[in-house]
Amino acid sequence: QQPVQSPQAVILREGEDAVINCSSSKALYSVHWYRQKHGEAPVFLMILLKGGEQKGHEKISASFNEKKQQSSLYLTASQLSYSGTYFCGTEETPIAQGGKLIFGQGTELSVKP
Amino acid sequence: DAGVIQSPRHEVTEMGQEVTLRCKPISGHDYLFWYRQTMMRGLELLIYFNNNVPIDDSGMPEDRFSAKMPNASFSTLKIQPSEPRDSAVYFCASSPDSREQYFGPGTRLTVT
User: Fold this and answer.
1) Quick check: helix, strand or coil at residue A84?
2) Do B98 and A100 touch (CB under 8 A)?
3) For chain B, N or C: smaller number of CB within 10 Å?
4) Residue A40 with chain B: CB contacts under 8 Å
5) pLDDT tens column, B96-109
6) Which residues of chain A lie closer than 8 angstroms to B31, CB-CB?
7) What pLDDT sits at residue A57?
8) A 25-54 residues with CB below 8 A of B?
């Protein structure tokens, strides 16, 4: 079941904050976040396992609400380098147990000077 | 470390031809994934291997697609015969533990 991301696109000025949401109708084992710049490969940002933990990567952090099967990615004080498409990926069953990672449709983030 | 290596980086072929995409994962990584990315369908998992064994191939579109991993350092994705709707960017990714996936630069396939 493909997760749903919102918004589909967002435009920010440098220094502004943004939140990207990812939701699933299925119970989740984990949520992964990746960023892909135009013409490049996706790059791993972080993984959140069920348990409601929050993780950080520079000024990018995320939370996972396993009861709601939702994750949010928080970008604070955005920089030009944050521009790109952000994908969440969800595991219903761990890959290590034969499951797979299913990616959402992506959220395009543009940071303007 | 060199990262995941894919070849060719670009491939243009005519409908009906056989296409072979190649991937060298990062040394020591036990998992290898093949993805396809298009504007319409996004990033789709085609197949993945664990220790050279195919685990889930439910994303392989049809019998025209096949993938092999003869050893820990090499995998191929073959399309025979190719069709225009196969045009996409194909990514190979590897992972040491199924969590963080390291993507290769991708192969842009155009089928005319």
Assistant:
1) strand
2) no
3) N
4) 105
5) 998 899 999 999 99
6) 95
7) 67
8) 32, 40-44, 47
Residues in chain B closer than 8 A to A106 (CB atoms): 42-43
For chain B, strand residue ranges (E) read: 5-7, 10-13, 19-24, 31-38, 42-50, 53-56, 65-71, 74-79, 88-95, 102-103, 107-111
First to last CA, chain B: 36
DSSP A42: -
Distance CA B54, CA A53 (A): 32
Q: How far apart are CA A45 and CA A82, in angstroms?
A: 12
Looking at the predicted structure, is the pLDDT value of residue A52 above 80?
Answer: no
For B29-74, write each residue's pLDDT tens digit. Answer: 999 999 999 999 999 999 999 999 999 999 998 899 999 999 999 9
Within 8 A of A102 by CB-CB distance, chain B residues are: 45
Which residue's structure tokens are 């070849």? B7
- Any A CB within 8 A of B30 CB: no
